[in-house]
């Protein structure tokens, strides 16, 4: 694997970790499935799909074995799509 690809994979892995921390998975919350902004405390659907692309990469690509085809991540992606 080239060094450039390794860097992209590591950056994506870090971004996934940040996104997972901000993803609201409380079904009782109005923010359910959204990425909650730490400053406002609310999720906004604008730009959500571009934020979620790293989560899709983690689910779809074996380069991310900690997330690849994981049912928990799939549930999160489904919740996010409903939020959008």
The number of distinct β-strands equals 0
- Unreliable parts: none
Main beta sheet, described? none
From the N-terminal CA to the C-terminal CA, the straight-line distance is 35 Å
Number of helices: 3
Task: Estimate the helix proportion, in percent.
Answer: 40-55%
- Mean pLDDT equals 94
Strand content: under 5%
Helix-strand makeup class: mainly alpha
Supply the number of structural domains: 1
List its salient traits.
mainly alpha; 3 helices; 55% helix; 84 residues
How would you portray this structure in words?
With 84 residues, the chain is mainly alpha-helical. It has helices spanning 3-22, 48-60, 71-83. The protein has 3 helices and no strands. The termini are far apart. The mean pLDDT is 94.
């Amino acid at each position: 694997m080239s060094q450039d690809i390794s860097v992209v994979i590591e950056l994506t892995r870090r971004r996934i970790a940040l996104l997972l921390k901000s993803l609201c998975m409380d079904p009782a919350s109005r923010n359910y499935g959204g990425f909650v902004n730490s400053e406002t405390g609310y999720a906004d659907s604008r730009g959500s799909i571009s934020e979620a692309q790293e989560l899709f990469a983690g689910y779809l690509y074996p380069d991310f074995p900690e997330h690849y085809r994981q049912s928990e991540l799939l549930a999160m992606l489904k919740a996010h799509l409903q939020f959008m």
